[in-house]
């Protein structure tokens, strides 16, 4: 397995300074680009893959666990964490309602039809914005917890790996839900 932290000359930690990571990526990419003297398609590709993994907190945590605590990722049942189950149901229900509303819209709506549907559209938009704000607040909280894990990284233990698995899952789900809600809001406004 490739160590993406080593590929970008970064420490194996849960939290990385994204600006420093981007600067390091650009420096290495410029040096190894296939169009430069001594450049290599393979090296450039590896640097690009490493950057894609490390810039995203959830994929960074998963990769960190793969290289530091591979046992922590084994045996997972794929179930959503109990703390996220209620949020999952809220997001899934709202997304279903938004999809049903969108599917019920005729292609050529008259101004009268649009006016009659405005109330429902406004209500759905308000609900989606409220849930999106909650999801983004939870994502920010999870990022703060990831930073806290980084602050105590030097004294890590097996319990750290268990917490990182949970945090990685949270970050992944919350980011996915945020993207889905944003996309649904765009469709609703369009």
Report on this model:
With 190 residues, the protein is an all-alpha fold. The chain is 74% helix and 0% strand. It is globular.
What topology emerges from the helices and strands here?
Elements lengths: L3 H4 L10 H15 L8 H15 L1 H12 L13 H22 L7 H41 L6 H32 L1
Fill in the keyword field for this structure.
single chain; 190 residues; mainly alpha; 7 helices
Q: Sketch the topology as an H/E string, one letter per element.
A: HHHHHHH
Oligomeric state of the chains in view: single chain
Instruction: Outline the biggest β-sheet.
Output: none
**N-to-C span:** 44 Å
Quote the average pLDDT. 91
Shape descriptor reads globular
Cα Rg: 21 Å
Helix content range: over 70%
Task: Say how many strands there are.
Answer: 0
Uncertain regions spanning at least 5 consecutive residues: none
Summarize the structure.
The chain is mostly helical and 190 residues long. The chain has helices at 4-7, 18-32, 41-55, 57-68, 82-103, 111-151, 158-189.
